[in-house]
Amino acid sequence: MSGYAGQILRVDLSKKKIVKETFNDRFARKYLGARGINAKILYDEIKPGVDSLSKDNILLFGAGPLCGTLAPSASRTTATAKSPLSNGIGDSHAGGHFGPELKYAGYDNIILYGRAEEPSFLWICDENVELLDAQNLWGKTTWQTDEMIKDDLGDEEIQVAAIGQAGENLVRFACIVTDLARAFGRCGIGAVMGSKNLKAIAIRGTKGIDVADMKTHLEAVNEALQSLYSNPNYEFQAKFGTMALQSISAELGWLPIKNFTEEEFKGITKIDGETFLQDFCIKNKACFGCALHCGHYFAVKRGQFAGTEGEGTEFVNVEALGTKVGNDNFPSILKAHNLCNQYGLDTEETGDVIAFAMECYEKGVINEKDTGGQRLDWGNYEAELALIERIAMRQDLGRVLGEGVQRASKIIGKGAEKYALAVKGSGLGPYEPRAIQSFALQYAVNTKGPSHLRAFLPCTNMPPVLGEPVHIIPIIEDRLCASEEVHRLVQNELRKNIGLEFILDMRSPEGKSVLYAWYEILGALADSVGICQFPIVSVPWGIRPIHIRKMLNSATGWHFEWTELLQIAERIVNVERAFNIREGFSSADDSLPDRFLREPLPNGPAKGLVVKLDQMKREYYALRGWDDVTGLPTRAKLEELQLGKIADELERLGKLAEAEAKTRGIVE
Amino acid sequence: MRVKIRYLGRVWDILKKKEEIIVVDEETRLLGLLRRLSERHGKNLENLMFDKKGQNLSPYVRVTINGRDISALDGLNTRMQDGDVLAIFPPVSGG
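Above: the input entities. Below: the structure tokens describing the complete assembly.
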């Protein structure tokens, strides 16, 4: 199978049994790879209601068909499990070099079942696959684990994905770290790995990937690269990466500050990307095969945190560990970022729980007795660093906070729930939803919780995607339009916004359902073929959808039309939705905390705004072809996507739109 | 009237300056102010801000006044007010 390595690795940790399975061509054509294939296997192979931290959950890794090929920025890899935060689908995506190495070893996916009796790590070296003892690695950081495995096996080229102490201690937002600073960050995937007694996966691959039509593939790769290099934003994005977003977010009023309690941050110029480049950045760093090289090596040279060195900090980290907790001390943020990577903690949720604790402290819900004598004032970075360690080790207040924002608030009680800004059990991503309504919709309806990257939404109006509308827009219009009203919206808004002029008021809910629906499809496609969304959307349109299609078709030898690719992406979105519905999720879970719906932003450029969710949510459901009130999929939509068996199962559970309507007496 | 100008991201990278205060007349519109900034900072800024014909803003630059995109105001015709904060930066997304 060209483009694919050709095998799935099934590892039963309880029985120490390893099975190599030939990749199924028909299945791959329906779900592409990575996120898509992981989602469908998760749906098929775990029973609803299983405890996410029990041996009955499964953990999947997947690399898509473009991952590891010459396609630029094709390093993205997906880790999927039932999330210990949401109890719904959890998938998390990392760059680096892990996915390409997996494919060079001969595998597209790894599926991990059961629980190892003793701490173990999985060693994959081409055809040689073994479960090895990891007693000596247990209790070590991800950085120590990476180094010890490479030393023990005597190969610096080995790629490691490991959990730190946070994953071992089942912190519900533990992540899996690869390449020292690239993380399968959100959804608590690291806790699932810890619950399986699996410390790491180490891979060395020496094979290649067969490409069906190398001449056309190279042509497509060159076209994508030329498009990227010639983009007026290329040089800027290659230099800043995501770090330009601090100052721009502050200017436009989207920066989460002090647990979303305000929207003005006096210290922003101390922690913006411009300051980072001047004072801390050493040089850029790329993930596998990426011409955009948006990562950075950094070093703190002076002061209390001198000697702190690392890589890969992003806007989200500076926001979560900085503005969200009121901290404008950049060296301490970089230190906190490193600690999270070493302990294996998701930086975003770590910032969320610390911000939550600080607001609880400010409002008198907790005090020094609860914090072990520590004052949790906003911006107290000493307390922040101490809390990161306590969370990872599950000590003192960290024992409670390690449950994630929502669960921690219920344990603390005394009105703490009011300050827990969570959706589906998980803390919010890096944007103030009242100021940028498309993100509000994303945070509410995203199947994996309030992550900001399900759809790589533009934060500002974007330039036109020249040449693309003829390929994309008629298809989107045809596929996503559920009603005359929505069709008019598409005609009037989408043409302008996606294709030709792209003028939107980011503060208004108008047009945001269409925007999210389109970027959600694009995201499912990019995640499933294994291409990073940053050079697609942020440059913007450096790598364009037409390049993805041409690279995919030439790599696989398939001849996907746009309609087919968009249908696959929509199928994946529907499988993920169905997984959550089967777990008991409903439209009520597609909501936001009251703070965003009822409390106007107190200050800043977007002062006075609240989220207007209902309108956007109904439009979004309608655009997806679901019941516009309940958000339940319809049989017609699922059958159109060749998901008839899922429709049957949802119907049996009374969770298909038509069946649910019948029970309410709406349909005879 | 005094207007604060903020240069962010790519624009900061060209000018190596985060902000400055400009004194303008009461009748000043945004286009006039941007032309003045072009004269003050040279071709690099002008090329970044305007399209090839030099008449409209480049799609690769966004301009806000007090945090509002000018497309939601009166565009290049927006009248400047005393104390306004003008920001110039590239389009962005991600995180």
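Note for the figure: The two ends of chain A are 49 Å apart (CA to CA).
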